[in-house]
Every structure is written in C-alpha cells, then in structure tokens.
Amino acid sequence: MLHQAIDFRDECDALYDILEPLSDEDWQREGQFKRWTINDIMAHLHYWNYGAVLSLTDEPAFLQLMADLGEIRKSGEDHRRFVDRRINHAKGKELLGLWREYYVEMAEAFMHEDPKKRVKWAGPDMSVRSSVTARLMETWSHAQAIYDMLGIERVDADRIKNVAVIGINTFGWTFVNRKMDIPGPMPHVKLTAPSGEVWEWGEPSESERIGGLATEFCQVVTQVRNIADTSLSVTGPISTEWMALAQCFAGAPEQPPAPGTRFRVET
Predict the structure, then answer these.
(1) Measured between alpha carbons, how far is 32 from 265 in angstroms, rounded to an integer?
(2) Does the structure show a pLDDT above 90 at 99?
(3) How far apart are CA 180 and CA 90, in angstroms?
(4) Which of 19, 68, 83, 267 has its CB 3.0 to 4.6 Å from that of 151, i.e. a possible disulfide?
C-alpha cells in the first residue's frame, strides 16, 4: 500500500476540518497569495487532483487537458476562469463536497497502484509515488494561505516529511529552472520534525548547512514564506542562494514572496 496516498488523504482531511464550518461568504475572502479567494484555491486544488487522476488512468485525455491549458495561456485568459468553467462554477459548500468526495476516491486509487509506474505531468514524467506526493505538497502549500487568512495556527504532522523530501530533491531544479549553474553540492540539511524527530540529508558540513524546523523549511521551498520570516539557520553562500530562490514545484521560475508579505493574520 502506497503510504504517500494515505498521507495525501490525511492532509486533505486536515484542510477539510477547517473549511467545513465556513459559510459560502467566507469562501469569497481574499488571501495573501495573489489575492486568491478560498474558492480560487480550492478550485485549483480540485481541478489538478482531477488532472493527476487523468494522468494515471487516461493519458490521451490528460495530454488534451494540457493542450487546452496551453491555448488558454496563449490567449491571455486568467487561468482561474478556465478552471472555474471546467468545474461548472462550483463554489463554497458545493465545491467543498466535490473536492472531498474526489480526493477520497483519488487516494484509494493511488493507494493500490504500482509506485514506480510512470505518468505524465506538466513538467517531466514522474512516478505514481511522486505524483501523489506532489498533490500532497500542493495541498499543504496552498492550504497555508487559508490558515493564514483565517488566523489559524497550523499544527503539522510528520507527513510533511513528504514535502521536505520534494524540497531536497529539487535543490538542483531550483537553479536549472532559472538557467543557472548548480553552485555545488547540496548543503547539509538538518530539520526537526513536528514530533521532535530529527531528519537529515546531505553530507555533514560546517561551511554549508541549513537547520531548524521542518515546517519552516517546507514553507520556504514551497514559497509560502520568505526565508527572512523564518528562524531557519542558514550557513554558507550555496545555502543562502538556495533558500533565497528555492522552488520545489514545476513550472516557470517563481519569485518567493517578499519579506513580511505572507503571515498568519491576528484575529
């Protein structure tokens, strides 16, 4: 059984628990991420869960989806309007129900697949394990904007190790995606998990190292926080450059949020 699929479901469940009490009016509130509303965020997550299932079950349909999206981008239409049409303009409680029903079924489908099977995606092909892990990462990172706007202090579980691993694995990608040379070996990374367990990657080094809370590392590599707004310890020029540019998700290079622009609203 693919445990990343279970972790994905559990992360979705945690987000569901904070969304379920909200009114439809709450779903229209804008957050700090590109002024997206909760409706925008959840439509995006639901639609790309659908895309991940298509990539697993119907490759030609997934490739058509990507071609359609490419045409929309050429036309200059807002991606959110494209997604909104594709989900029949579902919003609020209706969208919450659709998303929940779909992610539960999706997790079950991925749970029993061959983890090494290759599937298509917006970037390079990936394994089934990587595909569902990427959906967990997207859910976790976009959910941060919702926690922030609602003023809820997030309590993470150790399943965020999946997000940290993506952050580690995309050290080189951060630079290659910007057409930059990889500046050297990946720094030593030592993180404290929500449970207190210690996770480490890379060769031990006194000159190039990153240390601190796993949650904050995940926030930086998913670009939901600027490195300056965390307590991470960063030593060495490679470490500093990586944390200033880190991007663990596919797509064109994105700049991290400016210092002080992504934070939990006080209620």
Answers:
(1) 10
(2) yes
(3) 41
(4) 267
State which residues form the domain around 241.
162-245
Residues 230 and 145 in one domain: no
Reference 132, options 229, 56, 240, 203; nearest CA is 56
Task: Kindly tell me the burial class for residue 256, based on how many C-beta atoms sit within 10 Å of its own C-beta (0-12, 13-18, 19 or more).
Answer: buried
Length of the chain in terms of residues written: 267
| Alpha carbon distances (Å) from 138 to 132, 144, 182, 229, 252 | 10, 10, 25, 21, 16
- Residue recorded with tokens 């490759």: 59
- Do 21 and 138 fall into the same domain? yes
231 and 111 within one domain? no
Q: Model confidence over 189-235: pLDDT tens digits?
A: 999 999 999 999 999 999 999 999 999 999 999 999 999 999 999 99
Domain boundary pick from 108, 124, 154: 154
Q: What pLDDT digit, counting tens, does each position of 188-199 carry? A: 999 999 999 999
